[in-house]
Structures are given as C-alpha cells and as structure tokens.
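Most newcomers find our protein records easier to grasp once they have seen one. The structure tokens are whole numbers drawn from a learned vocabulary of backbone shapes. The record below serves as our worked example for the rest of this section.
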Amino acid sequence: MSKKLLLVDDEEDVCLLLKHTLENKDKYQVEYELSGAAALRRLEGASFDLLLVDVMMPEMTGLEFCRLLTQRGLAEGTPIILLTALSDLAYSEEALLGYNGICLCMYKPFEMATLRENVRRALAPMLV
C-alpha cells in the first residue's frame, strides 16, 4: 500500500509539480490543499503519513498551521517537512524545536532528488 502525503502550499503550480513527481516516480498517493485552513479541515477527517508544508502562505504561515495542528491534536505522530524560501537559521531552529512533528526544513529552491530522498527518509521509520 502506498504512503499518503498531504502538500500544503498556496502555489498550485508547486503542488502540481510535487504531486506529479512523488506519484509517478515514488508511487505515493499525494493530495494537496492551497491554504492552511483548508488543510486543517481535511485533517479533521483524514489521516496522512507525511505532511509537506510551505512556510510562507498568505492566510496563515506554516508555523501557525503547525501550532494549530498541535492545539487541535490533529496529525499526531505524523512527520512534517517544512518548505521555505526563508534562509533564517534561527527560524528553522524555532520550527524544529518548537512544534511536534517537524522533522526537517528544506530551503527553496531545492533539488527534486533531495526532496524525494528526504520524503523517503521521513517515512522510513514507518516502513516494515
């Protein structure tokens, strides 16, 4: 059974590119939402094996999204990879230390092969 991923990014082109690559090359089942609010609603009724979350979104940031996930008890134990154009290391440290589930911050632009490997590694503890 393939792993189920949720992309949360306000840029649909990014979502479509990642969805295409992760589904066709790695055979993951990939869904996406274009806002944190829509993703929170989706997570109230569905579970995913991994979340890929953009940091800079207009409605709520990726960190605000992660804070609400924690407060609402959604996606507990689900690894999260943050995708960001911000290169502030203090911000990354805050994200990695301050929120449950965040296992990695990846900086845009990223190599697709690196993203695919990081997704595989984030899911690896779940492989039996």
User: Anything to note?
Assistant: The two ends are 12 Å apart (CA to CA). The mean pLDDT is 86. Residues 76 and 101 are 7 Å apart (CA to CA). The first strand starts at residue 4 and ends at 8.
